Amino acid sequence: MPPVPSPPVPVPVPPEPEVPVLPELPGLPGLPEPIPEPVPDPVPVPPVPPLPERPRGALAPLLLPEPLPD
Question: 61: number of CA atoms within 13 Å, CB side?
Answer without folding.
Answer: 1
